[in-house]
Design goal:
3 helices; 21% strand; three-stranded antiparallel beta sheet; single chain; alpha+beta
Amino acid sequence: MKRIILLLLTLSLSLGMMWAKQNKQSVKFYVPMHCQTCIDKIYKTIAFEEGVKDLQCDLKTQTVVVTYDANKTNIEKLQKAFAAINKPASLTPPSNSGQ
């Protein structure tokens, strides 16, 4: 019985240390989106990029908040992933010059 308790304690501590090593960060990208199909395309591709933990798309504000593990990816890699699906992602809102 003591061995089982010791094993479970060791396992839980190991898992806790693994989760603690994650360096979760979030970034807000401004991404041109026109419809639900655009959002679906983002969810189907960006969600599976290495290190991505969560995605939140907002069609009205045309923003995507990506929560990711900074030990596995970074902003530049995420922007390249958006570019690969023809959805340029910028850190600043698009300017409305000319209006």
